[in-house]
Amino acid sequence: MVLHPADLGRRFTSKLHDERVAAWLGTWLGISFTVAFVTGLMSHFMQHPYAWMLWPSRPVNLYRFTQGLHVIGGLATIPLLLAKLWTVYPKLLEWPPARSIGHAVERGLVFLLVAGALFQLVTGLFNIAYWYPFPFFFTVAHYWTAYIVFGALVIHVVNEWAKVKRNVLPGSVRVPASPERRRFFGLVALASGTIALFTIGEAFSPLAPVALLAPRRPGIGPQHLPVNKAAAEAGVLDMIHDPGWRLTVTGRVRRSLSLSLADLHALTPRTVRLPITCVEGWSASATWTGVRLRDVLALAGVAPDARVRVESMEPYGIYRTSEVDWPHWHDSLTLLALGVNGAPLAADHGYPCRLIAPDRPGVLQTKWVHRVVVL
Ligand SMILES: Nc1nc2c(c(=O)[nH]1)N[C@H]1C(S)=C(S)[C@@H](COP(=O)(O)O)O[C@H]1N2
Ligand SMILES: [Mo]
């Protein structure tokens, strides 16, 4: 079906297809996608830092906050995006599709923005639901698409700025909202709010009982802690109970170490309260006991600015090792944990030994550790 501009106005009579509604929804979407972009980049560069990047180890819950915002905010954005697309879809039927080359480029960019935004939200949703119907690797696709979406967003905001000024910014024309418009905004807010309410408990434990839409909930799992990657899945079940297990410390050290579990228990025990914060948005605090990583590195005689790699017994998998920069390993809260919530680590939480450090993505909290290499 093809419509001429004059017909468009007659056919789409709803006041919700107007510029003001689109401008308001667009403003909220712009804010939300900017927050997602910034928090997403933080998460990416904490996991894949350039050599010059040093992330702080405090505040302890910083990553928990930014990643909760990224995932839960992203989910709450879904109704907002759908509402905006519904508001502006009559434009799809505009004829001619482009009035000039400039207009064609502009529309191409909007198409890229819409496709990219939908892609980010849908694949993000599938990822936290552990459903991978797509043939590409999620994190790589999500990362690169983010630049495309954000670039297209910036250009779109520049192109549409006059409409934002006319309808949203202070000093814009005041027109009383029609009941229809008020209902529509109310519905969108209700949908976003409902999604947020029923997922926020995955990161904010007082609301854990109503985290009905969350894939993981604080408090639920072995030792009252959710699990990501169980010992059986990681293929470590027959290694972790080996009495010959040793924690070795090698690389650029003055003394190499080989410590049994008893040796580790003989070091000064420490107890810390720290969260596991998965990139998928859920997080849960626990009480960890073990030895400070810095105490073990001091025994080995390690340079104060060294970078260390913690290695798991897990034979394959991209999360079998992680690197720890000096701000994190000097932190008194960073432990090679041997126990959690009052008992030795459960197999699924990394028995016999795992890393736990403040302000750090869960993927870097390596489980089933058996080697520390000083780089
Ligand atoms: N060796 C190893 N350690 C790992 C992982 C893994 O796949 N292999 N997964 C990580 C991820 S993604 C998270 S969120 C945390 C979860 O820790 P938990 O299962 O004890 O809650 O462990 C991390 N440690
Ligand atoms: Mo994770």
- The total of beta strands comes to 10
Taking Cα atoms only, what radius of gyration do you get, to the nearest Å? 25 Å
Q: Helical segment tally?
A: 11
Q: Roughly what fraction of the amino acids lie in strands?
A: 5-15%
Name the helix and strand elements from N-terminus to C-terminus, one letter apiece: HHHHHHHHEEHEEHEEHEEEE
Bound molecules: ligand MTE, molybdenum atom
Low-confidence stretches: none
Overall 3D geometry? elongated
Percent helix, as a range, is 40-55%
Major sheet size, sense and barrel closure:
5 strands, mixed
Q: Which class do the helix and strand fractions yield?
A: alpha+beta
Mean pLDDT: 95
State the strand order across the main sheet.
2-1-10-5-6
Q: How many domains, in number, for the residues?
A: 2
Distance N to C terminus: 64 Å
Layout of helices and strands:
Elements lengths: L4 H7 L7 H29 L14 H27 L12 H28 L9 H30 L11 H19 L33 H4 L2 H4 L6 E5 L5 E3 L1 H6 L3 E8 L5 E10 H8 L7 E5 L8 E4 L1 H5 L4 E6 L2 E2 L9 E3 L12 E6 L1
Helix pairs in contact: 2-3, 2-5, 3-4, 3-6, 4-5
Bound molecules: the ligand Nc1nc2c(c(=O)[nH]1)N[C@H]1C(S)=C(S)[C@@H](COP(=O)(O)O)O[C@H]1N2 and molybdenum atom (MO).
